[in-house]
Amino acid sequence: MDAEERRREILDTARRAGVVDVGKLAADLGVSKETVRRDLRVLEQHGLVRRTHGGAYPVESAGFETTLAFRTTMHVPEKSRIATAAADLLGDAETVFIDEGFTPQLIAEALPRDRPLTVITASLTTATGLATRDNTTVLLLGGRVRGGTMATVDHWATHMLSGFVIDLAFIGANGISRQYGLTTPDPAVSEVKAQVVRVSRRKVFSGVHTKFGAVSFCRFADVSDFETIVTDTGLPLTEAHRYSLLGPQIVRV
């Protein structure tokens, strides 16, 4: 196996498992740990993985995106804490957008039941979960349904959004960086998110620490567009401070 084949195998493993360990890769591939580290450095330079202490995880790109089912298995305790903290930011909002994805789905579940709310969402899963609540009116955006995320996209969704003024939007992303802002692999998803940013008075980003510094294909917002970023304590304080200098309040839970 030459270097290119080995790196392809490492990348495939990372995308299947969600994370790879240097020691296990070295043993499985029959090479030294330093060779694996060198391969991971190359893959990171190409924007395909992000290295961690002792391993790496894949970056979602135009050619790779995790499914909603997979996301429900990764960093679940962190996502649950983030969702609770994000829902606490509701304030006096009466109309709320809930993005596609597992963390936004958890935010929807954490919204209060004792007050009237109108929730707009592209997520079929979130719409189904909220539809039976007595005090909640659910507006599901129309459009093409993406099987991997069970969410709607394309011009039907963006056109419907264009007629709204939304009090508060809970928005996710596949990557967030100080240089490139918020990104996602699919142009159709990017258009929906960008439209949400345009029509919402307040914007909150929620995502686990692994999304920070990651850059995907389609950029849809600047960090400065958001009043608050909610993440977990895996994001170092020093890095959180750098993001706060761009405008948003950073909440680490």
Automatic annotation (TrEMBL):
<dbReference type="InterPro" id="IPR001034">
    <property type="entry name" value="DeoR_HTH"/>
</dbReference>
<dbReference type="InterPro" id="IPR050313">
    <property type="entry name" value="Carb_Metab_HTH_regulators"/>
</dbReference>
<feature type="domain" description="HTH deoR-type">
    <location>
        <begin position="3"/>
        <end position="58"/>
    </location>
</feature>
<keyword id="KW-0805">Transcription regulation</keyword>
<comment type="function">
    <text>Repressor of the lactose catabolism operon. Galactose-6-phosphate is the inducer.</text>
</comment>
<dbReference type="InterPro" id="IPR014036">
    <property type="entry name" value="DeoR-like_C"/>
</dbReference>
<protein>
    <recommendedName>
        <fullName>Lactose phosphotransferase system repressor</fullName>
    </recommendedName>
</protein>
<keyword id="KW-0804">Transcription</keyword>
<dbReference type="InterPro" id="IPR036388">
    <property type="entry name" value="WH-like_DNA-bd_sf"/>
</dbReference>
<dbReference type="Pfam" id="PF00455">
    <property type="entry name" value="DeoRC"/>
</dbReference>
<keyword id="KW-0678">Repressor</keyword>
<dbReference type="GO" id="GO:0003700">
    <property type="term" value="F:DNA-binding transcription factor activity"/>
</dbReference>
<dbReference type="Pfam" id="PF08220">
    <property type="entry name" value="HTH_DeoR"/>
</dbReference>
<dbReference type="InterPro" id="IPR037171">
    <property type="entry name" value="NagB/RpiA_transferase-like"/>
</dbReference>
<dbReference type="InterPro" id="IPR036390">
    <property type="entry name" value="WH_DNA-bd_sf"/>
</dbReference>
